[in-house]
């Protein structure tokens, strides 16, 4: 009776082969060394231990229980739902909804079982609607997942109780980190978590590792350490943060952290290599948007201001990634909120109007952009911030030039450039030099001065390794060389631009460069390459929402059609865009293609007045989407024909004869008799045909031949 229980148990187990099963060991995990002692004293013993965290013993083999696959989760849902309602079935109408339900519940078996038990009260669609919560207090997701089987332990009868059981076993620091992790909309890094939680890194690392061990936080196993939470756990942790009355503090910390991050990223984009900064924003994009949502919803003036700073830091990212819809949504919302608040904060008002002006410029709405930048300049002048005043002046000058106010634009260029040089603002100096190059070329016809400006801008950008800026400058130079018919120089610059922006993922500039290179290749009579780049430019422009560029590309497509003597589609395209595209160079992205001014007279001459008028009116009546599909179909057919012609040119005359007979279903023996050649030669021809066509067998070769019209299939 006076002996320790473990000693008695050790003696009892000596030389016995026994499997011990220990369930829910996480509540006694501190006793893990006792298990180690048993195993050392009794090597014949095996232990199967279930626990929410590993025991961290030598010789331990950890088997993680992963979430169910979506297919298995749906089957579990179906089984549990049918146990209550045998008539329940997965149908074409509800399968996608049940699939979304299982994904929302992270493939967590208990959550899926509890959800299925609610099908007595809610349809799958109604359940999913309840689960699309905003993570508010009294989460409908956690409130719905209750009423588990009565013969289960209480902690397993509701999802909230199950998570609360694990939560209660955490240390204070672990609980604090878990609550902080819930504020992130997507994955998070070590630095961001510790910063938002307000916990020193040296104190928090061990606690974060413990949360991962307990499967309350999951490691994403990325090159950069990233972590995430299951949605159900995130909702519970957010509830705990609200109950602890610290949620507002966590969201404030989130806003400040991402405000600082985007401001730092903007500085890197302007003054260093932008690649790392852009990648960092890509990684944190969802969390940045979450912080922005919280900031704009806040009634605290300082947090609202931090949100505007965050937007200002996102400007370069939004425009380089062509996220114009997202930018427009938040800029318009900020303007509306600023009007409602009537705060009178000049700096905030200046940034909002500046962002609005930049968005209007990207949408080619230069007149409204002028008004927005005038307001921005007025507000910045009230703050006395010379750097921002200089930038606002250059923004205004660009748009004034675009609406033909050349003299006034020149005044603001001079003032803005002088302020930037005085303040040491390289970024604005570069912008001014690049835009002044465009000004000298398009408006003042001083190409030597334009080239000098661009060479200065390119040299400065290249020195700092700024790929985006280098590409933009060279694109502008290529536009000038196209205008002056120096097609070889233009093509050489554009080849470099396309390669660079492909690699660095700048889709807008890639669309610009592909469009202009198409125009160059037309002049060089390289139609296959021109068609390929033209189709790429169209698709990218549609993907990023560059409608104005698409309309210019339609016009470019008309030039490509005319160069290939396809006069009817050319007339259709020109009829469609006649009143849509600006004629002034400063309001365009691409130059006017050579021959554009004579296009109507030439088309009338080639088609005749009646046919020209009919094609023109067809283009005039066609809507945008139909026009897009029309031009894609035109050039896809041409591209396909060129590929076919290219492949056919590799076949010898005998191989072509063999292919035609093969397509008629003839065997090698029959082909040898008809062509009067030995069968081994036929076999060699067939092998060559398959290799050159890139097909796997005779059937595919025959289908290719019939598709290209080489022969008619015999009955």
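Q: What amino acid sequence fits the structure above?
A:
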């Amino acid at each position: 009776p006076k002996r320790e229980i473990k000693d008695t148990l050790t003696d009892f187990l000596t030389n016995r082969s026994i499997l011990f099963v220990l369930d829910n060991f996480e509540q006694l995990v501190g006793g893990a060394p006792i298990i180690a002692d048993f195993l050392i004293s009794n090597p014949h013993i095996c232990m199967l231990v279930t626990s929410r965290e590993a025991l961290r013993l030598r010789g331990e083999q950890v088997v993680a229980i992963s979430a169910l696959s979506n297919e298995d989760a749906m089957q579990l849902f179906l089984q549990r739902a049918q146990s209550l309602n045998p008539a329940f079935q997965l149908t074409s109408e509800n399968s996608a909804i049940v699939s979304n339900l299982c994904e929302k519940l992270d493939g967590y078996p208990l959550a899926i079982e509890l959800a299925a038990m609610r099908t007595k009260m809610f349809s799958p669609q109604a359940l999913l609607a309840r689960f699309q919560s905003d993570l508010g207090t009294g989460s409908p997701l956690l409130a719905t997942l209750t009423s588990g089987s009565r013969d289960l332990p209480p902690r397993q009868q509701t999802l909230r109780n199950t998570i609360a059981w694990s939560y209660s076993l955490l240390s204070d620091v672990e609980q604090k980190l878990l609550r902080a992790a819930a504020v992130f909309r997507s994955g998070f890094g070590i630095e961001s978590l510790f910063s938002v939680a307000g916990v020193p890194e040296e104190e928090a690392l061990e606690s974060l590792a413990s949360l991962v061990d307990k499967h309350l936080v999951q490691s994403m196993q990325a090159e950069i350490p990233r972590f995430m939470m299951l949605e159900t756990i995130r909702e519970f942790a957010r509830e705990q943060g609200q109950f602890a009355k610290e949620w507002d503090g966590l969201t404030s910390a989130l806003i400040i952290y991402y405000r600082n991050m985007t401001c730092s990223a903007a500085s890197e984009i302007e003054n260093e290599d932008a690649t790392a900064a852009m990648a960092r924003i890509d990684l944190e994009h969802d969390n940045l948007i979450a912080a922005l949502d919280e900031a704009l919803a806040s009634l605290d003036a300082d947090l609202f201001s931090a949100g505007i700073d965050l937007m200002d830091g996102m400007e370069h990212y939004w425009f380089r990634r062509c996220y114009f819809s997202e930018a427009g949504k938040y800029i318009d919302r900020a303007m509306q909120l600023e009007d409602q608040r009537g705060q009178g904060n000049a700096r905030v008002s200046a940034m909002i109007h500046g962002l609005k002006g930049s968005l209007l410029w990207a949408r080619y709405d230069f007149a409204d952009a002028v008004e927005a930048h005038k307001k921005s300049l007025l507000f910045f002048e009230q703050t006395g911030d010379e750097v921002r005043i200089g930038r606002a002046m250059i923004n205004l000058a660009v748009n004034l030039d675009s609406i033909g106010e050349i003299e006034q634009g020149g005044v603001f260029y001079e003032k803005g450039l002088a302020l930037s040089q005085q303040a040491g603002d390289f970024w604005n100096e570069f912008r001014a030099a690049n835009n002044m190059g465009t000004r000298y070329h398009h408006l003042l016809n001083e190409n030597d001065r334009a080239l000098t400006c661009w060479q200065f801008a390119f040299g400065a950008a290249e020195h700092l390794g700024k790929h985006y800026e280098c590409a933009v400058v060279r694109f502008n130079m290529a536009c000038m060389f196209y205008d002056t018919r120096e097609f070889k120089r233009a093509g050489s610059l554009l080849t470099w631009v396309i390669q660079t922006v492909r690699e660095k993922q700048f889709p807008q500039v890639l669309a610009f460069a592909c469009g202009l290179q198409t125009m160059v290749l037309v002049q060089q009579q390289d139609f296959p390459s021109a068609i390929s780049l033209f189709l790429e430019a169209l698709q990218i422009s549609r993907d990023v929402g560059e409608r104005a560029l698409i309309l210019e590309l339609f016009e470019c497509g008309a030039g490509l059609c005319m160069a290939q003597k396809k006069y009817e589609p050319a007339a259709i395209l020109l009829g469609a865009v006649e009143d849509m595209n600006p004629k002034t160079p400063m309001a365009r992205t691409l130059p006017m293609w050579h021959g554009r001014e004579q296009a109507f007279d030439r088309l009338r001459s080639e088609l005749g007045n009646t046919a020209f008028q009919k094609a023109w009116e067809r283009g005039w009546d066609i809507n945008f989407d139909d026009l897009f599909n029309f031009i894609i179909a035109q050039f896809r057919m041409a591209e396909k024909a060129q590929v076919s012609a290219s492949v056919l040119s590799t076949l010898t005359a005998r191989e072509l004869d063999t292919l035609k007979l093969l397509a008629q279903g003839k065997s090698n023996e029959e082909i040898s008799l008809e062509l009067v050649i030995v069968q081994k030669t036929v076999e060699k021809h067939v092998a060559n045909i398959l290799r050159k066509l890139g097909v796997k067998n005779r059937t595919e070769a025959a289908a290719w031949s019939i598709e290209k019209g080489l022969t008619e299939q015999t009955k």
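Q: And what stands out in the fold?
A: Residues 533 and 579 are 25 Å apart (CA to CA).
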